[in-house]
């Protein structure tokens, strides 16, 4: 639905955190098995990264999947064809 | 050329004062050019500058074999004010400000310094680090003017008197008075100055009267800097005059001002801050003459000094002017002054990595002490001069009239050390440094020309300073400028310029009046008042007012703006029709500079400015080439863009006669400068002994 | 005679001088654009305050990267890269034509707040969009219930200023009338906003002219290569700086006083993780979004990186390379990433707080640290309808910024009169403000005893008093009311902010800021007699507000508002400050004799240092500190007159 990601409730907890989801993988740089996937902002904007937690080697940097909700909001018309004025 | 630097020509009459001399004091040397009014004989010389500058000035006159009593006119540029300011050796000065505003100097408009230290947490605003007027000597007195000149709070004379007495106790000898909104009503300022004169009878007191325009911070800074350097400058001019009179001087002493003109000592002493820097201004004056005499009224000038390069764009032979000059971040002078921009790369600039690790030339400099490595005076870091020595552009035995034999091996060793961090060769770094310096200068020229809508292809590039001609042809190539004009004695061009400078006295007044035909009368009245005042002042100083004419400018902006724009206007009396024509001219100017015009918004004249001009009578220069063959020898040098060294001819400038041609690639060396002529270019000598470099005429063309 | 120069290859490997020259050319284009924008703007925000910036974005395979920019305010440099990418994610590049300008001010697309508008202009080369030029500035007004851009008390963005997703503002350099009508018809000062929109557009026209000139000279490939070179070189320098910090996780917590709706403090927590030459800045553990407007939607993702730049790489030009070594983690629904439809207009305190907390975290890792800056701008916005003769009926808007100080550093005292590092705000020309607005700037000067004490003290705070000549509507945005800017390495905090209302302002009677007669407390920490006292006083005692974030206060004609902004925190032990420097500060009325004794342990008699008494006093304070009975006091002016 186009308009489903425009309004959100305030979080219930007094403090909030970003969750890092552990990923079964090994870091190609340092060999660590402490690898996680989570939402970040890089130099371009919101991205999902899979990153070694020991040395911060980025195993992947991708745009978020819809279920990642990252960022939570999005344009209601994002998939529509564009007119001359937008 | 007929320049006889070291000895007096025995044939010259010495009984009457027939010489006009230009004397320009620089950081290292005091340059002099002397011109005989009747014979046109020219002499030039250089002496070391002295801490007491009048000594060097007097010595320079002797150095060209003249007695002071033989001199009819001296046109003089000095650095007493700027030196006092840069070394913070001015007078112990107090400030009288409106209560609540004693810290305007520290506020410095509050912004940070753009450039390398923008994000540096250890940056301090220069006035906080090195105050001109420390806070303990700043007093807010009880008074307040409104924007319309009405008094919100009347002046409390006792608060001024109390401050004055405290300043007297503290041994203060100079006081700046600048009150908020005084540009529109100066009653409180004048009264405060009277009280100061009563309480501190021997002190120097300056007020906004020196340039009563809006912008409280810039005005306060201007008044404060004047009070800080004023006593030093006035004292210097006084000593110089006495020294001259003692030696039989009966002529006129003119002082070079930053508005591009000269003033009498009396007028120069009225607002000494307006003669803070004069060297670059002298250079521009010389260029203005060149533009008016030669076939090229449009010149881009590059004056390459030891630590920096000054650039200016001259259109139609007119002096380019601006109205703001920032000495250090937060210390800005507001006044009309020659529009010269500087970049920190000169002959003595050090070759170092920039913030990104790439090759940079400047802004750090080896200065005159120790100077470039090749001078052999203790310098260890390579400079642009060292790069040119290694490239072969500067010939070791022909440098500075043979005064210094350049040590090229030392240059090479120093360049090698610096080059190793990039894995470059010494010669590779030298070539890169030469190119970077030329590109940096070209970029600066572009900001004052291309970016102001000028088509530089129609301009000629005119170098000065000893190092200017060795870079100019390359800079011209980068800019796409076809023609380079190298004047005679480029190393002393500023001193020469002094000799050719008109008297110019500028005054301004803020009026904040709509640019509307209905207001023509009141705008005209403001102009006329200023012109009458200047006329009377100059007459009182004994100037020849019969030859006086005025130039006019307005500062204009759209209603609701702050940044006004200086627009020269015709000198005729302003009528309603005249105003009617200025409005569309302003819109057009705006569209060109800012990408839009707001035609429905009224235009406001913030300030009117007049300049009184008394033209200098231009004496004839007698120019005869020296005897002997111009071709000296060949040398190998590395030129920009060339894969390896090429053989070039070296020609002696002083022996080149009008009409003679030097095909590039070549070096033309003269006493204090070397000109590089690139491949594909030809230099020829014109009737005024200027060296003109243009593209080679080939068979196909 | 022939002198020879050794034949050597000049094309030896080394830095690419040509690229560096074109890189500089790009920066020059940006500098000229900003100059054009600033000089032609109408509102004091852009022309004076410099809350504006211009940016050159370069098209790359990944998206849009900043190749060059010129700051007015620092913060824009760090948020611009994301705004361009959000915009172009939403805008079909194939519909773009030369001379188009797209507008957005949406905080959820990276804008700092709705008042900061962004204009983007494509630059076509050979029919393809290769660059985007951006101009950005805070507009004086954009409708909504509260003028000026900071909608205190608002709990949703519906109650704030107009918020436009990417919208066409010019088509082929022709103004799009519906867009202009929308912006101008919903505006309190349409003449100023129109003037600024034209200036924002004009500088893009000027910029395109010059960028095309650069491309014509250097060639597109080389100009693009120069942009790439600029980004890579800045990234490398930033990475060298990060690598100089020992690997580790560094945590710190600071707070905002409250959100102007409830009185709960809002914690801002950060963990900065350093691994080699990369870094993560993770705001996990920070407060959820407050009810009021004190949180931001996205901009902290870039803005917090300025803290790292200040600490490890201050001298390179900012571009996308500055951001590349760092991933930022913003918890959704937090004070640093509020979710719609929350209000999000008051970015001016969370911004500096985020920078403060990151520098506090990194300060644990290095000796070359610095104390916090004032941490709040004590921003004041004015508006109304002029009633002065000759101006009657004219709507007007103006701003005031008192300044503040930066913290003491490992090298020196902090700079005075310098807004928080999100800014770089210049003062308005007050003589022009007084023509255009019925205001009198009655006082703007440093205030004694407001700098945090330290071996190197903070920059000074100041007093700012404005009198109204017509009834004037005021918005104030202030934080750090309870405790001033934190010190570092044993330095003390700066003074907190305080505000008063003065009825019937008269310079003769109210010209001394230390004299409290006739001053009604608006906000601050006061003792029982009404003296500001951050140590023993009570927050909000006798004051009109229990927050520093309020709107729609009316200053009646003839009355005044007076604000005190604190100075920066001190760095290092104030008992180790050279006594002579303390004496100089006392002579210059920056520190009182009593302040010197209390905070620096320096005893002065008749302006001279009493060496023996100073030694004894310092020994006594050192012992008390060791015993836990003394800490460096919060800076506070001491000698009030009641």
Automatic annotation (TrEMBL), chain A:
Name of this protein: Uncharacterized protein
From TrEMBL, chain B:
Residue intervals of the Hydantoinase/oxoprolinase N-terminal domain: 21-199
Pfam families assigned to the protein according to its UniProt record, in alphabetical order: Hydant_A_C, Hydant_A_N, Hydantoinase_A
Domain Acetophenone carboxylase-like C-terminal: 519-687
Protein's UniProt name: Hydantoinase/oxoprolinase family protein
Residue stretches making up the Hydantoinase A/oxoprolinase domain: 219-505
SUPFAM superfamilies: Actin-like ATPase domain
Domain of life: Bacteria
UniProtKB/TrEMBL annotation, chain C:
InterPro entries the record matches: Hydantoinase_B, Oxoprolinase-like
Pfam families assigned to the protein according to its UniProt record, in alphabetical order: Hydantoinase_B
Residue ranges annotated for the Hydantoinase B/oxoprolinase domain, each copy included: 17-574
Coiled-coil boundaries: none
Protein name, UniProt field: Hydantoinase B/oxoprolinase family protein
Source organism per UniProt: Actinomycetospora endophytica
